[in-house]
Amino acid sequence: MTPITSFAGKRVAVFGLGISGRVAAQALVAGGADVVVWDDHRRPRENAAASGLALKDLVMSDLTGFDSLVIGPGVPLTHPTPHWIVAKARQAGVEVIGDIELFCRERAKIAPKALFVAITGTNGKSTTTALVAHLYRCFGYEADVGGNIGTPILSLAPPAEGRVHVIECSSFQIDLTPSLNATFGVLLNVTPDHLDRHGTMENYAAIKERLVAQADHAVVCLDDEITRAIAERLRRAGKPTTFVSITDPAIADGIVLDGTKLLRRTAGHSSPVADLAGISSLRGSHNGQNAAAAVAALGAHGFDIATVQKGLSSFPGLPHRLEEVGRRGKVLYINDSKATNADAAEKALLSLADIYWILGGRAKQGGIEPLRPLFAKIVKAYLVGEAAEAFAATIGEAIPYEFCGTIDKAVESATRDAEQSRTPMPIVLLSPACASFDQFSDFEKRGDKFRELALAKIAEKA
After folding, report:
1. Which of 258, 294, 375, 434 is buried most deeply by CB count within 10 Å?
2. What is the pTM assigned to this prediction?
3. Residue 368 sits in the same domain as residue 272
4. Domain of residue 50, CATH code
5. What total of structural domains would you count in the chain?
C-alpha cells in the first residue's frame, strides 16, 4: 500500500466503496488523514465498516469543513448530471478528486523523480500497460501495474527510486486527477466512447489530451484524426514528444510499424528496433501500435534493441485479449472475450484467418454491421446470447451461421466444424463484439468459461 502522508491531518470524505474506494480510504487513514466513507448501496457500506473504516451518512451531512472528497471513477462527475455528492461538494467548496490524484500528490511529496508511466486511449490500454511493465522488468526495474487494468493504484508499493509505476488511466480517472504528471504519458487512440459520461467527443478527447499535455514526455500515436490534432498542439507547444504510427512508416521522426518490423525514424532515416513476426501475443497491426508506444515509453532504454527484442518476444500477453488457449490437433482456440464491441472484435478478425467465430451477448450500438467487410475471413459464425437474432439478420447469406444459445454449445459446434477443415490451422475464436451481461457478470467470467471449455476439448484429444 501507498500511505497518503500528504493528507495527514486533513478531513477527507470517500464516496464510492468499490475496491479502489476502500483502498483509497485505507491509504488515507494509514497516512494520518481523518477519513469518513459512504456509498449509495448497503453492501459496500457493510464491507467498509467490517474493514474498520468510519461510516458517515453523507446524504444527511454538510461537507463544509472537509478538505477533499475522493470519489470512485464510476461516480458521474459531469454527465448526464453530476452525482448528488459531487453537487454537494461543489456547493461547500470542497475539491473532488480520485485515487490517482492521491498517488500523484504523494509522489510529488516523497519521490518526485520516481518513474511513472500513464497510459490512455480508447482501445489497447491494458495490453500496452502490461507490455510497458514487462519491458521495464527486462531492464531490471521493479515495475508495479495498476489503475484501470484492475489493481487499485494505492494498493501498490509507494513511489521510489528503481521502481516504476505503470498505470492504465480511463477517461473517468483522468477527469479526477488534475495534477496528473507522468514521466511518460501515452495516448494510443481516441474513438467514440463513454459519451454518456462526457457529453461530447470534444470533452472526451480533451480529457484524454490532458494526460499527455501534463506529462514530462508525451508519446502520441498518429493513426486517427483526433490524436493527430493533439500531437500537432503538443508540437507547437514545444512538449517533448515521441510520435508513433502504424499507418505511415514515412513520418520524419518517431517509431513506426513497417510490415512486422518496428523502425525508429530520425530526420527521415530508419533504424531497426524490433521484429514482431512470430510473437503470438502481439499479432495484428493494433498490437504493432501497442508495441511501438511501449518502446517509446522506455525513453533511452528503447535504443537497446537487443533487450527490447528479447522483451517483446517474451511478452506473455493478457488473458482474454487474443489469448491462445491451446490446440486440439490442428484446431487453435483463441479467447478474445475482451472484445465487447465491434471495433475490438475487428482487431481479432483482421489478425486471423480460417475463423470459426463465436459471437454474441448484449449488443452495443451499431451491432456488427461495421464488420461486414471482414465476413470473408470467417468460415462460419456461432451465435449466442441476446444479440443472436439481430446478428443473424446482419449476416444474412454472407456466411453460414448457427444459433447456439450458450458458449458451451458454440464451442462444441465450432470444434466439430473446425476439425473438418482442410486448412492447416482452423481457429475457434471467441470474439463476441458484445457485452457479457446477458449471461455473465463480466467479460473475464465469459472468457474463463470459454477457456475451461476449450481446455476440456483439448484434454479429450490428448
Report:
1. 294
2. 0.91
3. no
4. 3.40.50.720
5. 3
Question: Are the beta carbons of 154 and 23 closer than 8 angstroms?
Answer: yes
In a shared domain, residues 91 and 141: no
Q: How far is CA 406 from the centre of its chain?
A: 27
**CA distances for 286 relative to 125, 230, 250, 317, 342, angstroms:** 11, 20, 18, 13, 14
In a domain, 318, yes or no: no
Same domain, 13 and 138: no
Same domain flag for 154 and 255: yes
Which residues are known to be catalytic? 125, 148, 194
Asked if 140 and 257 sit in the same domain, the reply is yes
pLDDT tens track, the chain, 462 positions? 999 999 999 999 999 999 999 999 999 999 999 999 999 999 999 999 999 999 999 999 999 999 999 999 989 999 899 999 999 999 999 999 999 999 999 999 999 999 999 999 988 899 999 999 999 999 999 999 999 998 999 999 999 999 999 999 999 999 999 999 999 999 999 987 677 777 898 999 999 999 999 999 999 999 999 999 999 999 999 999 999 999 999 999 999 999 999 999 999 999 999 999 999 999 999 999 999 999 999 999 999 999 999 999 999 999 999 999 999 999 999 999 999 999 889 999 999 999 999 999 999 888 999 999 999 999 999 999 999 999 999 999 999 999 999 999 999 999 999 999 999 999 999 999 999 999 999 999 999 999 999 999 999 977
Regarding whether 350 and 286 lie in a shared domain, the answer is no
Q: Across-strand partners of 429? A: 334, 357
Longest dimension (CA), the chain: 73
- Show the domain range for 256: 101-313
Number of H helices, E strands in the chain: 15, 21
